[in-house]
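Take the subject:
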Amino acid sequence: QQYPTNSLIEARYQSGNKPFYNWYNVQSLGYYPTQLKFTQKNLKEGIQYPIPDEYRVETSLIKKQIRCETKYQSNEKVKFIVKWIENKTKWSLYSDKSASNIISSFLKLSGSQIFGFDI
């Protein structure tokens, strides 16, 4: 069973002929404020999606459990946040550019290379 009856979502990606799978655990759907912000247009279909405020989802990336969050700011931007714990220390990164930008920053900080990861 998948969302909404189950908070777990299985995502399948294809890069070339190689499939990739990841699980997401939705902690909070958040809400849509009256002044909505939208994602950047994706390259394939040119679609933009509304971004909810206070959205929270957990997943694993490069063997780390991470929490991704959105938070609308008073300057009319959305803060994309990634949080994780490493060696009993809490870490976080944020960006007001895009979810892809913050994940790219997280991957650079982690020092790992991931090939075929579509963000």
Notes: The first strand starts at residue 8 and ends at 15. Helices lie at 99-110. Confidence is low (pLDDT under 50) at residues 112-119. Residues 23 and 39 are 21 Å apart (CA to CA).
